[in-house]
Design goal:
This protein has 201 residues and is of the alpha/beta class. The protein contains six helices and nine strands; from the N terminus they run E-H-E-H-E-H-E-H-E-H-E-E-H-E-E. The two termini are 19 Å apart.
């Protein structure tokens, strides 16, 4: 299964996916292109170092969010992408994009959804006084972090945690769970029926 990864920043989850592929841990999944809406970000350098083709589509150059997504779809389709993984992609996708990859767009979020959706999830968990948080891999739908859940990992919130410390500890689990979820999808072990996701062993 050809995977396209969308990025906007440093790309640590991209690196985890690329590393898993290099170790043969993505099964039949392979990253065929990395696309960024921001030029010069570290994620692009990570992809290039791994020998993965990259594309840059600056969103400011498009008249509308839909026009940007149309170009994004065309770029991914031209590379034969079958599964899209969002990895720190700081753009909300439109129905134009989701309809082009039905039940084939996944994201990683640094909280145990449905708790703490949206931005600054780690800060939300600290402000709320949560004792456990974590990360979630989910299918992307038209809502904000509201799509069907594929996999989760729990992370304790420790006394004295600040946002940076909690973020770092959650990232360890993100880097483990995200490649595993991509492999499961590529191997046909993830089925979706409405909001219900079944993961076969």
């Amino acid at each position: 299964m050809n995977v396209g990864v969308l990025v906007s920043g440093s790309g640590t989850n991209l690196q985890a996916i690329l590393d898993a592929g290099a170790r043969g841990q993505l099964g039949p999944a392979r990253v065929v292109v990395v696309v960024s809406n921001v030029a010069g970000v570290r994620a692009l350098a990570r992809a290039e170092a791994a020998g993965v083709p990259t594309e840059v589509l600056p969103h400011q150059q498009f008249a509308s969010r839909q026009a940007f997504d149309e170009a994004l779809v065309a770029t991914l389709k031209a590379r034969g992408v079958e599964l899209v993984a969002l990895a720190g992609f700081m753009r909300l996708v439109t129905p134009t994009f989701l309809n082009a990859f039905v039940e084939r767009v996944v994201n990683i979020h640094p909280a145990l959804l449905p708790a703490f959706p949206g931005v600054h999830a780690q800060r939300q968990a600290l402000d709320y006084g949560a004792r456990i948080t974590g990360c979630t891999v989910h299918f992307v739908d038209a809502g904000v972090d509201s799509g069907p859940i594929i996999a989760q990992a729990a992370v304790p919130v420790l006394d004295g945690d600040d946002e940076a410390a909690l973020t770092a500890r959650i990232l360890v689990e993100e880097h483990r769970v995200y490649p595993a979820a991509i492999r499961a999808i590529a191997e046909g072990r993830v089925s979706i029926d409405g909001r219900r996701v079944t993961l076969l062993s």
